[in-house]
Design brief:
Helix content is about 0%, strand content about 45%. It has strands at about 25-30, 35-40, 50, 55-60, 70-75, 80-85, 90-95, 100-105, 110-115, 125-130, 135-140, 145-150, 155-160, 165-170, 175, 185-190, 195-200, 210-215, 220-225, 230-235, 240-245, 250-255, 260-265, 275-280.
């Protein structure tokens, strides 16, 4: 049974006339007075609350088939990974450790959850089999490696802190640093076809959205809004990106084109709506 949306902040509704965008978007919102996980249609309509707990829950990601949502919750006293159906059913805990797990996302085949673990004292990237619970370390080294995202061909993009946050591409065992700036580059994600990597950077003085090709060429600013938060998430057809911005005073979810330019504002309220993740 789906948990009904509880609106406690003013005008918690999707904005605009609901243009036709594919798939569904999961996101975090405090519209009920607490940070919980929500899901909505790609056009911003039919918002449904998936979690209803006093804990802090965030960082949601949809599976490639749109059937499952993985997220982080501290409901048991520590940041652990949980999964729930996109219909709000079947909630279960994936990890049970003494250290935090963060930044979950599904592998493109839907069999694994890629996540950040602090089991080794710093941040490293692991994966967990969604059915068996088997875990495997993917990336470790000096400093922190975190926020991993996988492409269909097995490439992995992540952030590495070696004194400064940089975007790293791991492809066929070869590590490539895609950052060409003294600024902070973070929150990287792949385009729908895996050819482009989007990331947030303060290299221009404010946190804006940039794009780079996988070979490190063609770096460009996609859009410059005030304080972009969270990574861009591509629509299933690759024609749009969902982002978070506080350009109107609080965090809201927008749809933009990969070339830049705001297409539509999906949420409009006095709450904080952020961390959108788009899937079919």
């Amino acid at each position: 049974m789906r948990v009904p949306v509880i609106l406690t902040c003013a005008v918690c509704a999707a904005a605009g006339a609901f243009a036709s965008y594919p798939g569904k978007i999961v996101f975090t919102s405090d519209r009920d007075g607490n940070h919980d996980i929500y899901i909505m249609e790609g056009d911003g309509s039919d918002v449904v609350r998936l979690t209803s707990d006093d804990a802090y829950e965030d960082q949601p990601a949809l599976s490639p088939d749109g059937e499952l949502v993985v997220f982080v919750s501290n409901r048991d006293g520590n940041n652990e990974l949980y999964v729930v159906g996109a219909d709000g059913k079947g909630l279960r805990r994936l990890t049970d450790t003494l250290y935090p797990e963060l930044d979950p996302s599904f592998s493109p085949d839907g069999k694994w959850v890629i996540f950040t673990s602090m089991a080794g004292g710093d941040k490293d990237i692991w994966r967990l089999n969604i059915e068996t619970g088997e875990t495997e370390e993917l990336v470790a080294g000096e400093g922190d490696q975190f926020m991993g995202r996988a492409a269909a061909d097995g490439a992995l993009v992540y952030i590495e802190d070696g004194g400064n946050d940089d975007v790293i591409l791991l492809e066929d065992g070869v590590r490539r640093n895609l950052s060409r700036s003294p600024g902070i580059d973070t929150m990287a994600s792949f385009s729908a076809d895996g050819r482009v990597i989007y990331f947030t950077s303060n290299r221009a003085g404010n946190y804006d959205l940039f794009a780079v090709k996988r070979d490190g060429s063609g770096v460009r600013e996609v859009i410059a809004l005030e304080s972009l938060e969270g990574r861009a998430s591509a629509s299933p057809d690759g024609q749009y990106l969902s982002i978070t911005s506080d350009k109107d005073g609080d965090l809201e979810i927008y749809v933009i084109s990969p070339e830049g330019g705001v297409v539509e504002q999906l949420t409009e309220n006095e709450c904080q709506d952020y961390e959108p993740f788009w899937s079919k």
